[in-house]
């Protein structure tokens, strides 16, 4: 099931304020009123804010809790590293990826898919591949990969999260009544969405140091529409047929 509208508004608020603040400091720097280099070390705090927002939603999903905590840890670590209070290189932190993947496998063993059936555990070294039939999707990839196919004939949308991970969504066998909404949260990750040729696509997402590219062919008779919403930070989203 997709997120509550209030939660989506909060996400937009955090991301919108961040963009406004960045633009304001850039403007003041260009006008030689303020040296933006003084605040550059603090830009990863946006990850902390997004993680705290995810925790405040309290939707009961363990993987969303882990997702929020990971965002806060990454943002805090990057900020402290920028300030010189701690020192690390990304290659030193590769064991963290194993820890997160392990936690993801454990929590997935105690959760169920949108069709009410237990989600299968991926084997080590393989991508998580799912074939679902529920009316909505919920896919989260953190330093991992997910391939999800959905053939619901009453598809309504869902949620996709990718942090330094890859998500592939195949909806070519699905159908919608008139409109469906997918909410994205992509940070240093990639998302590929395949849709039927009779669907039109409307992109309302906000990319920052990233992009959302719609490569679908316009349908001959528009009537069914997929709306893409959310934020993309240093990542990419591609929609194809």
Automatic annotation (TrEMBL):
The chain crosses the membrane at residues 12-28, 65-87, 93-111. Residues 14-109 form the LiaF transmembrane domain. Pfam families: LiaF-like_C, LiaF-TM. Keywords: Membrane, Transmembrane, Transmembrane helix. The keyword Transmembrane applies. Residues 148-213 form the Cell wall-active antibiotics response LiaF-like C-terminal domain. InterPro entries: LiaF-like_C, LiaF_TM. PANTHER family: MEMBRANE PROTEIN, MEMBRANE PROTEIN-RELATED. This is Cell wall-active antibiotics response protein.
